[in-house]
Amino acid sequence: MKEIHSDQITETVTRLCVESNYYLGEDVLAALRRYREAEVSPVGREVLDQILENAEIARDEQMPLCQDCGLTVVFLELGQEAHVVGGDLNEAIAEGVRQGYKDGYLRKSMVQRPFSARINTKDNTPPVLHTTIVPGDRLRIIVAPKGGGSENMSQLGMLKPADGREGVIKFVVEAARRAGANPCPPIIVGVGVGGSAEKVLWLAKHSLLRNVGQPHADPEVAELEAEILERVNRLGIGPQGFGGLTTALAVHVETFPCHIASMPVAVNIQCHSARHKEATL
Amino acid sequence: MPCLLAPCVAPLKGRLELIKEQIMQLTTPLTNEVIEQLHAGDKVSISGVIYVGRDAAHKRLVAALDAGEPLPFDVQGQIIYYMGPSPAKPGWPIGSAGPTTSYRMDPYAPRLMEVGLKGMIGKGNRSRAVREAMQKHKALYFGAIGGAGALIAKSIKSAEVVAYDDLGAEALRRLEVEDFPAIVINDVYGGDAYEDGVKQYSRE
C-alpha cells in the first residue's frame, strides 16, 4: 500500500489554487483564438482580443485572471490502494486552499451563515470536495475554482422521458438564453443527463474538466454536444452579450443511466475564465 | 452596430469628446448634459473618481438611506462600479478588478438613483425597474468586460476603502481611474445594447 503524506497534499493544493487562477489553459486559449477569427461582430472581436490580452497580463504579472477567484471546487480521485498519512485528508485540502488564496493574493469569496449574517471566512474555505474511489495507488487532485456569476446560472430540470433528445436540447439552450450576458460569455456549457437530481448536477460540473471542445468519446453524445453548441451560438448573445456568433466555446455532456420514470438534466455554465489545474501524487 | 451611433455625438467642452475609433472620453462626476448625449452601444473611456460597491455594501447604503442617515460619500453625479477586487500585491494599487454581475444590485439601484447616482458599471442585464429608474432620474448603465480583471486593473491608478472595511473584498472603495474602458448598455432613452446585439446577430 502506497503512503501519501497529507503535507504533500496541502502543498499540491496550494500550488494548484494559484496556478489555476493565474494561467488560462492552452485549450481555452486555442478555442478563444479560433472563435476570434470566425467572429463577425467588430465589438465581439475586440472583446475576444481583450480576453486574450487579459490572459497574457495575468500570466506575465502573476495575478488572477479574474477578481472572482472562485469557490474552490476540488475533485479527488483516490486510489483504493493509497493510504493518506500524517493527518486528516479533508483538512489537508482545506489548508492548501487557505495557503494558496493567501500566498497568491487571491480573493476570498466564501461566507458562512449564507441566509443571514453572511460573514466572510477570510481564507476561502471551506472548499467543495468531491471524492471518488478508483483502482490503483495514486491520488489525482483537480482544483477548479468557480466564479459566482456563472455558477448562479446553473439549472436543474427533472424532465419526462417523453421529452427525449429534443427536450434536453431545448432545456440547455433556454438556460443559455436566460443566462444571457450574466455568466461572462463566451461560455462553456456543462451538461449532465441521467442519474438522480444530485448526480446530474455533479455530471454537469464534472464535464467542465474536459479539455475545451474535446468531443465525448461516445459518438451519439458527441453529436448531441455539437448540435447544442450550434443552437446556443445561434442565439446571437455573443462575447460579453454585446452580440455576435461566439456565445459558447464548447458544450460538454456527460451521461449516466437513470430511473425508468426520470430524465434529469442539469446545466452548469462556465465563464470564459475556465480554470482548472491538476496533479497526480 | 450600436457603436456606429457615436459619430452623431458632438464634442462637449472637455467633458465628453469624440476621439479615434469613436470612443467618448468621460470625466466624472457626470452631468445630465453629458448623459443625454450618450446612447446604448457607445464606447466610452472613463477618467476621474469612481466608487466601488457590490452586494453587501449596497445593502448597507440603502439601509442608511432608509434610516435617514448620511451616505459615506457624496453620491451626486457619481458612478458606482459593481466590483470586488482581489488583494493588491505589494507595489500595486489594486489586484484583479473586473465587473461583477449587476442584477444582484437591482433591488438597491433605483433608491441610489433617487438621491443622485448617475452611473453604474457592471455586466449583465438589468431589471425593468432599474431601466425605468434610469430614464426617470437620468442615469446610465455601462458594461465592462467580465473576466478581464487583470487588464482593467491597469486603468486603476489608486484605490482606498471609504467605508465598510469589515466587508473585505465587498468594502466601499474610491478609485481613481484613467481611461477605464466600457460600453453604454442602457441609456436614458430606453436603449439596450444587449437587446440590440441579439437582434442583430440572432440566427434563430
The first-to-last residue Cα distance of chain A is: 14 Å
User: At CATH's second level, what is the architecture of the largest domain in chain A?
Assistant: 2-Layer Sandwich
What Rg of chain B, in angstroms, do the CA atoms define?
Answer: 16 Å
Q: How many helices of chain B does DSSP assign? A: 6
Name of the top-level CATH class of the largest domain in chain A: Alpha Beta
Order of helices and strands of chain B: EEHEHEHEHEHEEH
Straight-line N-to-C gap of chain B: 19 Å
Specify the overall morphology of chain B: globular
CATH topology of the largest domain in chain B: fumarase
What structural class is derived from the secondary structure elements of chain B?
Answer: alpha/beta
Question: What is the residue-averaged pLDDT of chain B?
Answer: 90
Whole-number count of domains of chain A = 2
CATH structural architecture of the largest domain in chain B = Alpha-Beta Barrel
Largest sheet of chain B: 5 strands, mixed, barrel
Uncertain spans of chain B, ≥5 residues at pLDDT below 50?
A: 1-20
Task: Give the radius of gyration of chain A.
Answer: 19 Å
Tell me about the largest β-sheet of chain A. 4 strands, mixed
Strand content of chain B: 25-35%
Report the structural category of chain A.
alpha/beta
Specify which chain pair forms the largest interface.
A-B, 51 and 48 residues
- Helical amount of chain B: 10-25%
